[in-house]
Amino acid sequence: MPDRLDPRFDLSFTLNGAPVETATTTATALADLLREGCGGRGTRLACERAVCGACTVLVDGVPRASCSVFAFEVEGCAVQMIEGLENDGELSPVQAAFADNSAFQCGYCTAGMILLTEALLARDPDPDEAAIRDWISSNICRCTGYSLILEAVRDAARRKRETAP
After folding, report:
1. Hey, what CATH topology would domain 93-163 get?
2. CATH fold of 9-84
């Protein structure tokens, strides 16, 4: 029997470029829907208070802490998760830059860092050091110093500029 205080309803949005139609409740967090209903294990949950950045996804190109977004808020939106960045088995330039620069240790924050970088480079293809530091400041890495991450972002910017039409 459905919960009368929080009935299920249909939700439509685009996930990694593909249309999604699912049922959810008004109390469901986007992170939970993506992980449990859409198989998105790259969206990590840590603080569940929109502080750490591990659950970052892009909603219409804007980084959002999916733990603090209700699923119903993405009705009609385009949601991008880390799983949707690769193209025909090829890593995106940002993913490749992070891998080639060893910009991770445990990897827990990496998906959020990569998605933040994708959003930054969509807005500014040649960000300066201050802009890069500002953007990645919303994602906490507890394993590394940030120097390899900063280098990966600079490398990703270069790669994207070199492959831009």
Report:
1. DNA polymerase; domain 1 (1.10.150)
2. Ubiquitin-like (UB roll) (3.10.20)
Side-chain-facing half-sphere of 1: CA atoms under 13 Å: 2
Q: Using one digit for the tens of pLDDT, what is the confidence trace for 8-59?
A: 889 999 999 999 999 999 999 999 999 988 888 888 888 778 778 899 999 9
Can you spell out the DSSP letters for 9-66?
EEEEEEETTEEEEEEE-TT-BHHHIIIIIS--TTS--SSSSSSS-TTEEEETTEEEEG
Cα–Cα distance between 120 and 63 in angstroms, integer? 9
Give the C-alpha separation, 118 to 61, whole Å.
9
- Where do the structural domains in the chain lie, given as residue ranges? 9-84, 93-163
**Which of 114, 9, 18, 28 has its CA nearest to residue 66?**
28
